[in-house]
Write a structure and sequence with these properties.
Chain B: Pfam families: SRPRB. Chain B: Its main location: endoplasmic reticulum. Chain B: Interacts with SYS1. The complex is a heterodimer of chains A (606) and B (272). Chain A has 606 residues and is an alpha/beta fold. Chain A is 47% helix and 13% strand. Chain A has helices at residues 28-39, 81-95, 97-101, 106-110, 116-133, 159-187, 202-217, 259-267, 270-285, 289-295, 303-319, 324-338, 349-365, 373-382, 399-412, 429-443, 466-480, 497-510, 526-540, 566-575, 596-604, and strands at residues 4-9, 14-19, 48-51, 54-61, 66-73, 299-300, 342-343, 387-392, 417-422, 455-458, 484-489, 514-520, 552-556, 579-583, 591-592. In chain A, the strands form 3 sheets. Chain A has an 8-stranded mixed sheet with strand order 10-9-11-8-12-13-14-15, sandwiched between helices. Chain A has a 5-stranded antiparallel sheet with strand order 2-1-5-4-3. Chain A has a two-stranded antiparallel sheet with strand order 6-7. In chain A, helix 19 links the parallel strand 12 and strand 13 (552-556). In chain A, helix 9 (270-285) crosses helix 10 (289-295) and helix 15 packs parallel to helix 16. Chain A starts with a strand and ends with a helix. With 272 residues, chain B is an alpha/beta fold. Chain B has 2 domains: 4-59, no CATH class; 66-270, P-loop containing nucleotide triphosphate hydrolases (Rossmann fold), CATH 3.40.50. Chain B has helices spanning 3-33, 36-64, 79-88, 127-134, 150-165, 168-173, 192-211, 263-270; strands spanning 68-73, 101-106, 114-119, 138-146, 176-182, 243-247. In chain B, a hairpin with a 7-residue loop joins strand 2 (101-106) and strand 3 (114-119). In chain B, helix 5 packs across helix 7 (192-211). Chain B is elongated, with a radius of gyration of 29 Å. Chains A and B meet through strand 1, helix 1, helix 4, helix 13 and helix 14 of A and helix 3, strand 2, helix 4, helix 5 and helix 7 of B.
């Protein structure tokens, strides 16, 4: 049933692999895709991933630096896979402990892992265990709970009409239950608590419920008798609570009643943590050396050890303006990466976790592709076509200002720029761009560039279709041999469907070389919503099967935040695209590139 | 008159020595009181401590002296397979590396020198961190290039090479550079000479665009090392380090079970 199963080291060497019968394609492609999109993008929180028709599940072994991946067809739902991977991992570790414990890759290269027989045995066991459970058959009416309730207990006491309504229903049920009635009487003796209400009268049921209610409320004012507590039978549900897909999660997370106790625990400094942890172990192992053993020597990290540190880190990240769900996903991913890892001597849990978190943050901020706009513009110039950059974003983030800054940078490096005024909605948008054009031309007068103005504006006034203007602008640029076309679009909210459709149409029709999303650094959790909805709109309204999505991010208003730089992390994590420009002010010179290390340093600073 | 300053000086010197004299005398007395063997013991232990400190310092500084050869390159260029072939000669299936792998390597020369071979991951988001970690320990770098899809990737290859060559630590230590044009078993593979020419052209352009790149947001500019000679087209011979281009095939032309064609690579490594 499985398509393949591989075991490889984190350094890339495949130690053992298994390919299911009848499977001809190599599994290297899907596994590489898994590594690149999940593990390297710090999404290891959930351990399954789907690629084309395959569904992949994986498990990291951090002590010996191994990865276990299993792949099977997406349409099959195999229930034994999770437990199977765990079993295989334990088995493999136990069997090849000696080879795996040696440092250096030589042991892995030279040893041959003959794991087939064990694997087949484990697979057979897993398949049999899943078959043995079999499909759950439906319970017969006699075995269900409903048959054990009396008709009386299901009748409500509130007013006579209710009783009549229920009575109607009850008559139907009574006929069905006629058979069950006989079974009820003997079994009534062994009832559980909720069905124990049968024997009592209605008043006694109400009294009992009231007592429970009071107990729960712990001293809340006693409910008036008119407010009768709910009967045993559930009323049909009225309004269901609306669940927003991207909104906050359940209120369970806001319940700090337990974590306060732990928080005080973990709020102490690390030494105290260690000492306490060592003390706990000391009591168990006995003797003074137990405490020392916790401090020195190798100890493998477990989920409980990391829990307090990760909570603190999560709060720290959220305080630094990282979106809440991204902070928790990041912390889960770091926990997965560190689980089972053996720490060196004299390293505390907190320092290991902090180091791992820092590494993953730097990794997220590193661009996953080459980012060199000037080189790409040169390439487009050699192909005799203009390089088209489109700016999109919500209202007021700084699209037009940063467009002007980028065109300044480009003309400083000797490229000719055409600005396409596709913001046909906002009052004064075209005039604003015209002012920028005049200023830039006065800074670099046409005399220096062979009599031709280095920046030109292509505009068609207000109220026209933006996609059409963009297409004409690009054609004009091609005719006049401009190097770069900068397309300014109107700001729009991500929930505004017609405007999002219009933007998607502009991008799908004109196929720009670079689609830049302009986002401000002040944004918090909104960033996630904006980017997801923008990407979704671009994907939905494009006709091709390879839609153009957001290619890069411009992070503006960076000078207004001191070290609350979390928006950078949220945006790159959600899209996986690099931050191409950073806007640090409102003059032409305030354009920078992102330095990942500096940002992460500012983020992790206490 | 001339003697007067001299007398004054002497008096001054005497005055300066005088405060120390009683202390020196006391010290001399204490030392003489001690058992000579005890004194010798103290002197010997002090000497041992001093020698150990000097030795440790020497050893520690030797660690940072280059003793490693790094295998770098873009993702999917064949570094991990090359690593496996060089160390054990076997063919192993590989996946994208997430961490580095290192192992001692015995060079095939008469001296039998051995150093550490380190295989760094090539994925774009991991590359800078690992290069940062290992660059100071590098005595040579083997830059692995996928010759079959070189045409499509030429800009990425050149950018990474530029990043390596303009790094301040690398330009200071000047490790030798071997560009291994891998995957020669594929028919469309480009030759080493062609790759060299293309890279030179591309690096020429990169010199201009990279120096015009924006500075980082905290003010730190990029590397200010200028490659090659100003005013002339870039050539690899202008670099201060030894650069060598060679062809190899980690998979080998006879399929997975055959030998790999890495003879030229092994020869170059032996010359290090």
């Amino acid at each position: 049933m499985l398509d393949f199963f591989t075991i490889f080291s984190k350094g890339g060497i495949v130690l053992w692999c298994f390919q299911g019968t009848g499977v001809t394609e190599s599994f290297t492609g899907p596994v590489n895709a898994l590594i690149r999109s999940v593990i390297l993008q710090e999404r290891s929180g959930n351990n399954s991933y789907s690629h084309d028709a395959l569904s992949l599940k994986y498990k990291l072994d951090n002590e010996f630096e191994l990865v276990f991946v299993v792949g099977f067809q997406k349409i099959l739902t195999l229930t034994y896979v999770d437990k199977f991977i765990d079993d295989v991992q334990l088995h493999f570790r136990d069997r090849y402990k000696n080879e795996l414990e040696q440092k250096g890759a030589l042991a892995l290269l030279n040893s041959h892992f003959a794991f087939e027989d064990d694997f087949k045995m484990l697979l057979r066991e897993a398949e049999e265990s899943s078959k043995a459970r079999g499909p759950t058959s439906m319970r017969s009416f006699n075995a269900s709970l409903k048959s054990q309730k009396t008709v009386k207990s299901m009748i409500e006491t509130k007013g006579g009409d209710k009783g009549k309504e229920q009575g109607g229903k009850k008559n139907k049920n009574a006929k069905k239950e006629g058979k069950g009635e006989k079974a009820k009487a003997p079994t009534s003796a062994q009832k559980t608590e909720e069905n124990g209400n049968q024997g009592l009268t209605q008043e006694e049921i109400i009294q009992k419920k009231r007592e429970e209610f009071i107990r729960k409320r712990m001293g809340a004012p006693v409910e008036k008798p008119s407010k009768s507590p709910k009967p045993v039978k559930e009323k049909p549900k009225g309004k269901e609570k609306r669940v927003w897909t991207l909104g906050g999660s359940s209120t369970k997370e806001l319940d700090y009643s337990q974590s306060n106790g732990n928080g005080a625990h973990a709020a102490g400094d690390q030494g105290l943590d260690r000492g306490r942890g060592g003390g706990r172990r000391c009591c168990r192992e006995g003797g003074m050396f137990g405490m020392l053993k916790g401090l020195v020597g190798s100890k493998s990290l477990s989920q409980e050890d990391m829990e307090p540190v990760l909570d603190k880190m999560r709060d720290h990240l959220i305080a630094k303006n990282v979106a809440a769900e991204i902070a928790s996903q990041l912390c889960d991913s770091v926990a997965k990466k560190l689980e089972g890892k053996v720490m060196g001597t004299f390293t505390t849990v907190a320092s290991t976790v902090k180091g791992a978190l820092q590494d993953s943050l730097v990794q997220i901020l590193q661009p996953k592709r080459r980012v060199d706009i000037l080189r790409d513009v040169l390439e487009a110039r050699s192909q005799r076509r203009p390089f088209v950059i489109t700016f999109c974003g919500v209202n007021g983030v700084g699209k037009s200002t940063n467009l002007a800054k980028i065109s300044f940078w480009l003309i400083e490096n000797g490229f000719t720029v055409l600005i396409a005024a596709c913001d046909t909605f906002r009052a004064g948008a075209v005039e604003q761009l015209r002012t920028h054009q005049r200023r830039l031309n006065s800074l670099h007068p046409p005399q220096d560039h062979g009599g031709r103005p280095i920046v030109q504006l292509y505009e068609k006034g207000y109220g026209k279709d933006a996609a059409g203007i963009a297409m004409e602008a690009i054609a004009y640029a091609r005719n006049q041999a401009f190097d770069v076309v900068l397309v300014d679009t109107a700001g729009r909210m991500q929930d505004n469907t017609p405007l999002m459709t219009a933007l998607a149409k502009l991008i799908a029709v004109n196929m720009p070389d670079l689609v830049l999303f302009v986002g401000e650094a002040l944004v918090g959790n909104e960033a996630v919503d904006q980017l997801v909805k923008f990407n979704q709109a671009l994907a939905d309204h494009s006709m091709s099967d390879k839609p153009r999505l957001i290619d890069g991010i411009v992070l503006t208003k960076f000078d207004t935040i001191d070290d609350k730089v979390g928006a950078a992390i949220s945006m790159t994590y959600i899209t996986g695209q690099p931050i191409v420009f950073v806007g640090t002010g409102q003059t032409y010179n305030d354009l920078r590139s992102l330095n990942a290390r500096a940002v992460v340093g500012a983020l992790m600073k206490a | 008159m001339a003697t007067e300053p001299g007398i004054n000086m002497e008096a001054k010197i005497d005055a300066r020595e005088n405060p120390f004299e009683p202390y020196l005398d006391a010290l001399k007395k204490v030392l003489e009181d001690q058992d000579p063997i005890f004194m010798i013991g103290i002197v010997v232990s002090l000497a041992v401590v001093v020698i150990t400190v000097v030795f440790l310092k020497y050893l520690l500084s030797r660690k940072t002296v280059q003793s490693a050869v790094l295998l770098v390159g873009l993702c999917d260029s064949g570094k991990t397979l090359l690593f496996s072939r060089l160390l054990s000669g076997k063919f192993k299936k590989t996946q994208t590396s997430i961490t580095d792998s290192s192992a001692p390597y015995k060079a095939k020369n008469e001296r039998g020198s051995s150093w550490i071979l380190i295989d760094l991951p090539g994925h774009d988001s991991l590359r800078p961190q690992y290069v940062e970690k290992f660059k100071s320990a590098a005595r040579a770098m083997v830059f692995v290039v996928d010759s079959a899809i070189f045409q499509k990737e030429v800009r990425d290859v050149a950018e990474f090479l530029y990043f390596l060559l303009t790094d301040s630590v690398v330009s200071r230590n000047v490790p030798s550079l071997i560009v291994a044009c891998n995957k020669q078993d594929i028919t469309m593979a480009k030759s080493a000479k062609l790759i060299r020419q293309q890279l030179e052209k591309e690096m020429n352009t990169l010199r201009v665009t990279r120096s015009a790149a924006l500075s980082a947001q905290d003010g730190s500019a990029g590397a200010s090392v200028h490659l090659g000679k100003k005013g002339k087209d870039f050539e690899f011979s202008q670099l201060p380090m030894k650069v060598e281009f060679l062809e190899c095939s980690a998979r080998g032309s006879k399929g997975e079970d055959g030998e790999a064609d890495i003879a030229s690579l092994e020869k170059s490594l032996a010359l290090l």
